[in-house]
Amino acid sequence: MAMVCLSDFEAYAKKYLPKIAWDYFAAGADDCTTRDENILAYKRIRFRPRMLRDVSVMDIRTKILGSEISFPVGIAPTGFHQLAWPDGEKSTARAARAMNTCYIASTYSTCTLEEISAAAPGGLRWFQLYIHRNRAASQQLVRRAEALGFQGLVLTADLPYTGKRRDDVRNGFRLPPHMKVKNLERAFEVCKMSPLDPSVTWNDIYWLRSLTRLPIIIKGILTREDAELAVRHGVQGIIVSNHGGRQLDEGPATIDALVEVVEAVRGRVEVYVDGGIRKGSDVLKALALGAKCVFIGRPALWGLAYKGEEGLQDVLRILQDEFRLSMALAG
Amino acid sequence: MAMVCLSDFEAYAKKYLPKIAWDYFAAGADDCTTRDENILAYKRIRFRPRMLRDVSVMDIRTKILGSEISFPVGIAPTGFHQLAWPDGEKSTARAARAMNTCYIASTYSTCTLEEISAAAPGGLRWFQLYIHRNRAASQQLVRRAEALGFQGLVLTADLPYTGKRRDDVRNGFRLPPHMKVKNLERAFEVCKMSPLDPSVTWNDIYWLRSLTRLPIIIKGILTREDAELAVRHGVQGIIVSNHGGRQLDEGPATIDALVEVVEAVRGRVEVYVDGGIRKGSDVLKALALGAKCVFIGRPALWGLAYKGEEGLQDVLRILQDEFRLSMALAG
Amino acid sequence: MAMVCLSDFEAYAKKYLPKIAWDYFAAGADDCTTRDENILAYKRIRFRPRMLRDVSVMDIRTKILGSEISFPVGIAPTGFHQLAWPDGEKSTARAARAMNTCYIASTYSTCTLEEISAAAPGGLRWFQLYIHRNRAASQQLVRRAEALGFQGLVLTADLPYTGKRRDDVRNGFRLPPHMKVKNLERAFEVCKMSPLDPSVTWNDIYWLRSLTRLPIIIKGILTREDAELAVRHGVQGIIVSNHGGRQLDEGPATIDALVEVVEAVRGRVEVYVDGGIRKGSDVLKALALGAKCVFIGRPALWGLAYKGEEGLQDVLRILQDEFRLSMALAG
Amino acid sequence: MAMVCLSDFEAYAKKYLPKIAWDYFAAGADDCTTRDENILAYKRIRFRPRMLRDVSVMDIRTKILGSEISFPVGIAPTGFHQLAWPDGEKSTARAARAMNTCYIASTYSTCTLEEISAAAPGGLRWFQLYIHRNRAASQQLVRRAEALGFQGLVLTADLPYTGKRRDDVRNGFRLPPHMKVKNLERAFEVCKMSPLDPSVTWNDIYWLRSLTRLPIIIKGILTREDAELAVRHGVQGIIVSNHGGRQLDEGPATIDALVEVVEAVRGRVEVYVDGGIRKGSDVLKALALGAKCVFIGRPALWGLAYKGEEGLQDVLRILQDEFRLSMALAG
């Protein structure tokens, strides 16, 4: 089976992953309308291709918060990479470094931050976090990430509670016994209810700010109003995201929301987007609409499921080639 | 089979109900366009989710015509509950009371008003009625309902004649011999033709008003013009409804009609809506567009078909949980 | 098999007619886009139903060019009724008379005008004609129709050449040897090429006018410009029609074209419409948009195919009942 | 199997061509969205048919850059005709001459320009070229074409790099050993990398101009901005084209782009269009929107695959008949 485009990796993962893992990665909230809209919205956007421009040399490198990456596609935070590949997030970190791009490690990793760092020293990494009821747990995670050389903190704002993903409920999804949410092992001990705090507000950004000198990127913004609030509360970046359509169903597609967020932000902070990226031309569309960089979630997991770090590199390389080609063809 | 969302109850009912009963409950007029539009119209409405608001405590109680209910979802009037579950409307009444919400009992119940009242004393109930050719029959029903403690009269305005439901014609639908429209047993004796009066006009509201001190809620309004007339004729509430798409096909979806009705009413009376509610987020959309409360029809019957009052409670509980979650996630 | 709605007759005809006959009746030009659009366009039109109006008595009779019919649905001109039922147009004439409505007999009938007249004396009938290269043939037909008591002449304007109906080409469609286009038997003898004259223009209306005192109705108008021309050239009626989607594919649906034609005509002549009528509510929509009456083509043939004149009466009766019901339910 | 419309030829070719050849001809870039949009966009355009105009005599001849063709449909440049029929481009040239229309021979022909010329002396032919890294190779091709009596040079502007056609990658598409890109045999020897130059700009039109007295037609324009540039750089004609949807996916359909190009050009040069023509009425639509002539790509290959030059003539004749009929029916 030739791996020609990202759908090939999706088909492979669907075929070879255990159903419970595939379902978990594929899940969207409720009717999965928003999950699917993320993709459909890209298809509705049309290029106006220009001809006879010199496209013999193209520079596709970019910088995010000052760090150069080889092309504007990073790895979005997703949980439980060992469900896709035995080495889990260690493979992800290695692939991202090999491709010289940014990897946002999830709090819900099946490897510790320390293992991730050790697997690919020197790679560009950000750390995704939630604010926990137990603020000390959050604070400890921030300190660890900072100490390990993570270069950004990504605060997920759209998960006061977990969205309703029907297949996960049906499957009674939980991690197999040999996998653990290692970063939180100690935190879970002190907290029997859901460890995430649904009472978090914009003021908690100030608290987070006080803990660290790292840039804070807020993830999950979908409206101009919240984009304005984010800028005012001093974040350095915004990831326009609907959590892959896994939280509130029937909100906007991220590429549609990107337009109003970019407009509201007026260049004051960097804006990124995730959700629905399936082709290099999707990356070009996102950039044309004002994103500085995009992040991929499920496609990264399909790459892992195919061949670990090698498979993820394949996915990134295909996106890179397609992105470069579509830039050339669009003039 | 895990019952995770309302569609699971629908699938169960379709599988286990006798075809003639399933067809009767599922039926829409003509091509069923409006029946299906009721659902599709909800899907076209998009949220603008807001982030980082304190959603740790949410109060989802509401009041309808002064009575508190535990969350803004009641039971719409539908006929023949014994087709779904042996105890029929008695189970419905018990489930509604258990969930502390409002049940609108249909004239076409297979239990008498007295049986319904006795099954769940103290529950909040309204009574749905038509105006009969034999006005004395209508008057008698109103008196009985009032005496039994029903707290509202719901006048159905959209059934001067019964809509054409093709499957019912094909099936030659009628009640099995052991079931009866018990509330009308005596009325039917004096009236060989359809007992409903197609000559009813707005002035009959005054007649109804003269019979009772109960609030009158009119059901079946779909336009701003009729909403204005309803207010002027002194009703206390309006249920925006197209009878589940069972009367005139190719009219508006109720959630679309709600917008113009709410605008016309300008808060002078309470406005409710039924038709097409399948998820907690549908409830949130209806409330965001001005409804005070929604009523569910077919989903209640699916719950009954699954496990009687217990099944209906399951349905209500799922809607309640989904409603609360979508409120939190929408900020 | 219960015959509940017009689709049931369609299914019957598709099952029991010889394929070559079914294909001929069902055929649309090219991709059949316009044929199907005729139906889809009705579905896009929505009612605004009004409530609590006295609908106990409704008068659905109407007059077309001064003649009363029992309800506003007539029989459009279609060819070769013997392909559907042995008695052919004689059955059609009988059914139309029995239902007290208007039947437009086609030039391409498999019975003569004389046979049609004799089959149902006293019925309201119009005669559909083309203008032939051999003007004498046309003149003779007009004289015969007039002498036989036909009360209107319907000039088909949209067939300078026959549209491309792929299945007819594939099937090598022609009438079986025992059927004949009897009205034209003599005309065909003098004319080896297509008998219809593609050089006909608006001035030929004057010529037709000079031949007869019958009202002239022009069929096949789809634009405001042509509607204006038709009025100026002195026709008494316009049938908005695209020949059932059998001529130019990808023109407008007739119900959409009706709106602009009615607007242009401003009541100076009567406007009718054919194409896509499948339910009584379609009739109501056409009337609400300004048609004085509609005509049905394929559904009449399905009725014939089912049970001859009896089947066609069934079709008309269903439409009548549905029309009356939708009037009542729409208020 | 009767060959009634172009889809019949498509079905034949799909059935009888080797998969690798069918896939190559059918291929679109990425998701094939633009390939399919080319067709769908025609379907969205509606006629406003006019009646009672004298359509007994119609002249469908036209002139492109001063040369008369029998009807406004030419053969677009496509590669590798021997994949469809053993005689390859020689058959194409013969069919085009027989039908008295224009054939644009591709650089990627499997016959030499000399063979093509010799096969059908006197036919109207243009030559399609790219600008090569090796300018001498391009120059030599231009000289050969001019010397052989080709009457126009078609510069393809939308292929700085080849689009990503997934099936071709999966199939490992390359020409069978007995076929060659004969026109480039010598050029390939001096150039191991892709022979096409991605650094070409508008200024290279001046260079091309300096080589030849033939008119230059630019192919691949999709925006008003590029149309203006083309006119300013002195081309004689523009082919609105997206390379059959084989280059950048998710750009505009050509018939949609035609409108803005025609508007920008304001008659200063001739405008043609290719892509998505499947019926004679599509030709009429393109002409009504301002094209002087259309060119067909895949349908020509299907014709070849069916019966060589005879099959291609069948395709052209069907288009001609359909075009004439739709002109008559549209008035």
Automatic annotation (TrEMBL), chains A, B, C, D:
UniProt keyword Mitochondrion, yes or no: no
Binding site for FMN: 77-79, 106, 128, 130, 156, 219, 241, 274-278, 297-298
Cofactor: FMN
Annotated ranges, domain FMN hydroxy acid dehydrogenase: 1-331
Keywords from the UniProt entry: Flavoprotein, FMN, Oxidoreductase
Swiss-Prot/TrEMBL catalytic activity: a (2S)-2-hydroxycarboxylate + O2 = a 2-oxocarboxylate + H2O2; 2-hydroxyoctanoate + O2 = 2-oxooctanoate + H2O2
Transport listed as a keyword: no
CDD domains xref list: alpha_hydroxyacid_oxid_FMN (cd02809)
Protein residues bound to glyoxylate: Y24, R165, H243, R246
GO CC annotation, single: peroxisomal matrix
Catalytic site positions: H243 (proton acceptor)
UniProt xrefs under Pfam families: FMN_dh
Single GO term (MF): FMN binding
EC numbers on record: 1.1.3.15
GO terms of biological process kind: fatty acid alpha-oxidation
Top-level class of the enzyme under EC nomenclature: oxidoreductase
Family statement: Belongs to the FMN-dependent alpha-hydroxy acid dehydrogenase family.
UniProt xrefs under PANTHER family: 2-HYDROXYACID OXIDASE 2, S -2-HYDROXY-ACID OXIDASE-RELATED
Name of the protein this chain belongs to: (S)-2-hydroxy-acid oxidase
